[in-house]
Automatic annotation (TrEMBL), chain A:
It comes from Cocleimonas flava. Keywords: Cell membrane, Membrane, Transmembrane, Transmembrane helix, Transport. The keyword Transmembrane helix applies. InterPro entries: MetI-like, MetI-like_sf, PhnE/PtxC. It is a multi-pass membrane protein. The keyword Secreted does not apply. GO terms for molecular function: ABC-type phosphonate transporter activity. The chain crosses the membrane at residues 21-41, 83-106, 218-235, 241-262. It holds the Pfam family BPD_transp_1. This is Phosphonate transport system permease protein. PANTHER family: ABC TRANSPORT SYSTEM PERMEASE PROTEIN P69, PHOSPHONATES TRANSPORT SYSTEM PERMEASE PROTEIN. GO terms for cellular component: plasma membrane.
Automatic annotation (TrEMBL), chain B:
It is found in: Cell membrane. Belongs to the binding-protein-dependent transport system permease family. One of its GO terms (cellular component) is plasma membrane. This is Phosphonate transport system permease protein. It is a multi-pass membrane protein. The keyword Membrane applies.
Amino acid sequence: MPVISKGELKVWQRRDRAKQLKIWAMWFVGVAIFMFCWKIISDATTWFFVFDAPRIAADIGGRAWPPRWEYLSELWKPMWDTINIATLGTLLAIIMGVPVAFLAANNTTPSRKFLRPFALLIIVSTRSINSLVWALLLVSIIGPGIFAGTLAIAIRSIGFVAKLLYEAIEEIDTTQVEAIQATGASKLQVIAYGIVPQIMPAFAGLSVFRWDINIRESTILGLVGAGGIGLYLQSSLNILAWPQVTVILIMILIAVLISEWVSSKVRLAII
Amino acid sequence: MSTASPSRTWKRPPLIKDTKLRYGLLLFVIVYFIAAFFSYEVNWARVYEGLDRGWEFIKAFSNPDFVTRWKDISAGIWESIVITVTSTVVGIILAIPIALGAASNLAPKPVYLFCRGIIAVARALHEIIVAILMVAIFGFGPLAGFITLAFSTIGFIAKLLAEDIENISKPQAEAVKSTGSGWWQWINYAIQPQVMPRLIGLSIYRVDINFRSSSILGLVGAGGVGATLNTAFDRYEFDTAAAIIIMIIAIVLVLEYVSSFIRAKVQ
């Protein structure tokens, strides 16, 4: 702890001079980078539109209210599709993600040199691409519709499910596994009775958590033609039918809040 | 345990203990899946036709084309990075006061409810929907993307930081208070040091999320590499699309590496 003596007085300081200067320098670089990035955005912006924004926002708000509630009757089918995309997508992701997790976990992988890096590559590549990009790709490959949306959600979720699950597998209590091995169990039996019961709570929790996220993501897949309520949002926006947009947004908000409530209830029940 | 029963076999304990709930849920799930399955209409002929294109896309990864549209790609990636940096910084700066307000052990009830309301709205709507509205209000370009991501950063950081502030150790806070500190000193010396590691960890994680999101904002005209990617898919230029996707994955990998390094150092 650096103490500086000013005449008679001894003053305590948190850091010594060199450390303090280093911290100031880092702040300076950080602020400079931020200002530089801000300048780029500022250059690309038509500021006239921005100054005009409050008026535009008020204008849109005025047109969006009151919501056109009759439109609700047309929305039940796409909402059902949206929920199906999220649920079946999550299910597919679990089916594909669980084997990947077992291949990726250090203590269950059959080959550490070959299969483990391959499994990690699957996890990283599916996780870093947004589900909307997957939807874009799948729509151009297998055509528009909820099937493409379901696959997009499934592929994006593989990495998520597999990553969290393999971390849970790596953290298990090895004594239980050894106990099962000592009974003369085969490799599959060890997994079924020694590992699976230990990761079951984590697995159930992350599945429900991902389902909750997927409900939110599947509401927008329609923007690129992958089915669900986003399709109706897109067409309402295209014809500037703001009262319909309001109805859709309210419906999405309610669906997301319900799914969040369900998922938190289930996770509390498990833990 | 009755020793009279002729054969005793062990059964695994079920995940859900209540029998009625267990079979009720099972029945519900089966009925749901049957209903969901029949509402799917898959045009298998179209899927089959598309398989060739899918194969072409996979092949494109072995031969990505960075060169032909390099100007568009580099401009898009650059814009994505710029949006990520600015939106994360501004989002965090705005999230900190909201997190203080949303912590039930610091804020009075009205402030608490107001801040929780902001967080709920910021988290409920998907970034793309917010981006559509922002583009409509502020016009096309990276500014709309910046505002969108800053907004969703507020929801994310403020929620998790508020939870962390609610879980601080009270003795430390009381010790600082008993020295006669003012409110600001109390926040600065009792609360801030306790939540700082978590705040840094969350911020770095959010950089990662924001970059991933900024790559799709271009689809609705809010800047970033998404517009280039969309055009590449629309024109079936899979080699260019593969190049963009490879670049996104590479940058996410670098960010993940840096973030795990910094988090290990902080905690």
